[in-house]
Design goal:
26% strand, 3 helices, 140 residues, 5 strands, 39% helix, Nucleotidyltransferase, domain 5, alpha/beta, 5-stranded mixed β-sheet
Length: 140
């Protein structure tokens, strides 16, 4: 049986990291840094500076960042012949990241795990292997 190549896609509001795992061994790696998503937006004293406008502004920046992440992830997955994708991020971002992955890669998401991109590599690798093991047990 041919072993699968998994892509681990780690993303947050500013960064993205991608690497492959095949037979428990880390392969290709790529990193994307885009610090364009603001956390806080200054607003004036005007009454029309509604909080929802600020939220939409931040969400627009996040959307543009995740579009770039999705494109880079799809190119990385295609280049490395990835079979399945595991997403690591903050829980509120899971659906947004999946939504920004182009078809057919959005259909290849095999699992998710909560992590910080700053987490130690060994911890990320351990969590990713756990998700891969769970996915393989379900699909075997």
């Amino acid at each position: 049986m041919k072993s699968k190549i998994y892509m681990i896609l780690l993303a947050d509001r500013k960064h993205a990291k991608m690497f492959t795992i095949k037979d428990g061994i880390v392969g290709a790696k790529e990193e994307l840094m885009n610090g364009q998503v603001p956390q806080i937006v200054k607003h004036g004293d005007n009454l029309w500076d509604a909080q929802d406008k600020i939220f939409r502004h931040i969400e627009d920046h996040l959307h543009r960042h995740l579009l770039i992440v999705g494109e880079k992830a799809a190119a990385f997955a295609k280049r490395n012949h990835v079979n399945e994708i595991i997403i690591g991020s903050h829980k509120p971002l899971f659906k947004k990241i999946e939504k920004h992955l182009p078809y057919p890669f959005s259909q290849r998401v095999a699992g998710r795990f909560v992590t910080e991109l700053k987490a130690p590599v060994n911890e990320i690798y351990r969590r990713a292997k756990l998700r891969i093991k769970q996915f393989e047990e379900i699909n075997s």
